């Protein structure tokens, strides 16, 4: 470049500056050459100046049965129009389009520079899909056929994939010499399709008409982003290491399509919520559950959910076909569960609460039954029990959505007690006991085939189904563990169920570790449910606490020993969680050595919640912790032989930090780099 900045450095070209990437300052630069943008590889002396008004846009390559486009430029931000208030009557009538009604722009059109940036991002996503089509076509279809975690039925997902093949053929992207030019032309059409309202959906709509409204000739940024996102999730299941670069590239493409759809689409629709939901799952699988971007991205998803009215039964069912009603209920159940799980790790209040919603749980229907014709759907619903469960031993995405929906009732109420003054009042203790009873009542109301038991390992069930049952069971037990932990601090009579629940959780984790070819990664289970149970059992053994009837001390010692070996074998030096795993493993081993050695007769005083009462003055104000994560690691009393850096007793990691802080220090990206993030 012939220009230079005031500091003497060479400035980047305009495309590289907008993309915020390093420019090699050639003319044209390599990036622009690679992307076919050599005519735009120029230095802009005043990039923040206002560009001229955009002219009316015309499409050089129209699609078959193209939607009629309005006359004004097709790029605006419906987010600016969200300030417009809707009356309660409008909400009761059904989902209202946010930002554009009767063909009128909701906010001023964006300039041509913004449109060009959108087109660049969409074209890049199309090129990425085309360049990796052989891989995508293989893993994508297998994932849709075999996965039990897909929120959107496989028929929809495969139809979206087939739309991409049609797009490649229509715009000549299959020919290498025309791929870049064809991709930009196709991107313009995708942007135009995104900027106009889709076909109206009513109770008479079929799955075919709904799919056609957002794919094929009407392919939008939402659908394009969904294909990118689904391809990445499929690649994670196929072989996550060898496809790492591909997965990250697809995550970028999916995220940009999601951003474009939120900026350009005239209203929030179902496909936008699907993309936001799956994109968040992929983000947590790649970046980790505790990545800082997860929290704000979850907020946008919740806003989309509320904008579509999925928290109100009257809204989501208004003039909608039965298959879409059930899919919306699945979406609400999944977001409801996901919101609580994410808020737990960030120690922030949940934003999607069932107490402020009246959405019914989804029926326990398979995707085939859901997408069948009216007679098939009626026949399938007639085989359900009175409360909506399948009478057959079958498992589907709706099964897990229902279980998470119901188990969330007790979880939703639990965090508020961590903000109550300590010690808990008699009224709050009674509420916690009632909450525990409710948790048990909900679990016992489930059909026998969805409640995990050890015999399921030899039952011939699909291992993926068994793993989902285990994860759900551990989630149920963890809620009980949080309740008992709160009660145990001032009520030693609760200690037996606390220890029994922790021992059961640890036993299930050990059972899962002995299973080969398990879909769920053991590291994920170890951190989420193994560590909380160990944080209860290890201090109880160190304090020589009597165990309740039915619990074998020898069995607990064996399980703790196996668990320590899990930590030592799974997290080697160089692993992001090696230090934490080493400290937890060392504290377990020291406790077991102290118990088994000849000189292990000392009893160390352990801080609450294990039977000792802390003066009320030390609890003048409660520390807001999420108790569903388990009890904090106890601290040894230095006056009785314990010490911070060593001593005769066991060493406890993070003796100045509570257990939640320990969980927050875990590198969740290395634990959840898979499809099992927040199952």
UniProtKB/TrEMBL annotation:
GO-annotated molecular function: DNA-binding transcription factor activity, RNA polymerase II-specific; zinc ion binding
Protein name (database record): Zn(2)-C6 fungal-type domain-containing protein
Chain residue ranges for the region called Disordered: 42-109
Organism of derivation: Acrodontium crateriforme
Keyword Nucleus: yes
Domain (Zn(2)-C6 fungal-type): residue spans on this chain: 12-43
Annotated keywords: Nucleus
Cellular compartments annotated: Nucleus
Cellular compartments per GO CC: nucleus
Main location group: nucleus
């Amino acid at each position: 470049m012939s220009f230079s900045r005031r500091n003497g450095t060479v400035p980047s070209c305009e495309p590289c500056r907008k993309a915020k990437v390093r420019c090699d300052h050639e003319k044209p630069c390599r990036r622009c050459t690679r992307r076919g943008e050599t005519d735009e590889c120029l230095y802009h002396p005043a990039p923040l100046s206002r560009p001229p008004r955009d002219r009316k846009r015309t499409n050089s390559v129209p699609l078959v049965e193209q939607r009629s486009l309005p006359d004004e430029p097709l790029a605006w931000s419906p987010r600016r129009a969200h300030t417009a208030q809707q009356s309660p009557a409008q909400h009761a009538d059904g989902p209202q389009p946010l930002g554009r009604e009767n063909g009128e722009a909701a906010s001023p059109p964006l300039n041509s520079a913004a449109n060009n940036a959108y087109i660049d991002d969409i074209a890049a996503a199309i090129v990425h899909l085309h360049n990796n089509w052989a891989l995508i076509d293989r893993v994508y279809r297998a994932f849709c056929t075999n996965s039990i975690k897909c929120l959107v039925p496989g028929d929809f997902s495969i139809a979206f994939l087939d739309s991409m093949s049609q797009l490649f053929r229509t715009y000549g992207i299959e020919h290498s010499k025309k791929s870049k030019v064809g991709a930009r032309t196709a991107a313009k059409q995708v942007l135009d399709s995104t900027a106009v309202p889709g076909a109206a959906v009513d109770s008479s709509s079929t799955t075919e008409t709904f799919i056609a409204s957002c794919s094929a000739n009407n392919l939008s940024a939402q659908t394009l982003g969904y294909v990118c996102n689904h391809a990445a999730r499929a690649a994670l299941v196929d072989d996550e290491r060898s496809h790492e670069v591909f997965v990250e590239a697809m995550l970028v493409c999916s995220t940009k399509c999601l951003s474009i759809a939120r900026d350009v689409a005239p209203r929030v629709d179902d496909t936008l919520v699907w993309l936001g939901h799956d994109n968040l799952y992929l983000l947590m699988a790649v970046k980790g559950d505790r990545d800082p971007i997860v929290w704000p991205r979850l907020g946008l998803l919740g806003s989309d959910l509320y904008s579509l009215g999925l928290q109100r039964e009257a809204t989501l069912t208004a003039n909608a076909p039965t298959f879409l009603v059930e899919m919306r209920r699945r979406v609400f159940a999944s977001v409801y569960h996901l919101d609580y799980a994410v808020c737990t790790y960030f120690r922030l209040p949940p934003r999607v609460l069932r107490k402020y919603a009246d959405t019914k749980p989804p029926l326990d229907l398979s995707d085939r039954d859901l997408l069948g014709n009216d007679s098939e759907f009626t026949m399938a619903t007639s085989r359900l029990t009175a409360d909506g469960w399948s009478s057959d031993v079958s498992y589907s995405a709706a099964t897990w959505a229902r279980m998470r929906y119901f188990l969330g009732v007790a979880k939703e109420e639990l965090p508020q007690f961590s903000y109550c003054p300590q010690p808990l009042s008699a009224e709050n203790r009674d509420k916690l006991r009632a909450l525990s009873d409710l948790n048990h009542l909900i679990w016992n109301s489930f059909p026998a085939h969805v409640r995990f038991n050890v015999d399921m390992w030899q039952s011939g069930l699909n291992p993926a189904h068994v793993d989902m049952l285990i994860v759900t069971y551990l989630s149920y037990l963890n809620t009980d563990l949080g309740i008992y932990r709160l009660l145990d601090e001032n009520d030693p009579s609760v200690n037996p169920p606390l220890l029994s629940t922790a021992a059961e959780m640890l036993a299930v984790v050990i059972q899962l570790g002995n299973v080969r070819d398990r879909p769920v990664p053991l590291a994920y289970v170890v951190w989420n449910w193994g560590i909380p149970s160990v944080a209860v059992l290890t201090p109880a053994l160190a304090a020589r606490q009597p165990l309740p009837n039915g619990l074998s001390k020898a069995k607990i010692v064996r399980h703790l020993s196996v668990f320590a070996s899990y930590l030592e074998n799974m997290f080697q030096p160089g692993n992001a969680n090696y230090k934490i795993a080493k400290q937890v493993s060392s504290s377990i081993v020291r406790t077991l050595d102290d118990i088994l050695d000849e000189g292990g007769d000392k009893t160390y005083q352990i801080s609450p919640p294990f039977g000792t009462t802390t003066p009320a003055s030390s609890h003048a104000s409660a520390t807001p912790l999420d108790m569903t994560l388990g009890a904090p690691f106890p601290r040894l009393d230095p006056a009785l032989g314990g010490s911070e850096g060593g001593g005769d007793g066991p060493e406890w990691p993070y003796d100045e930090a509570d257990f939640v802080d320990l969980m927050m220090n875990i590198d969740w990206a290395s634990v959840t780099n898979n499809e099992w993030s927040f199952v």
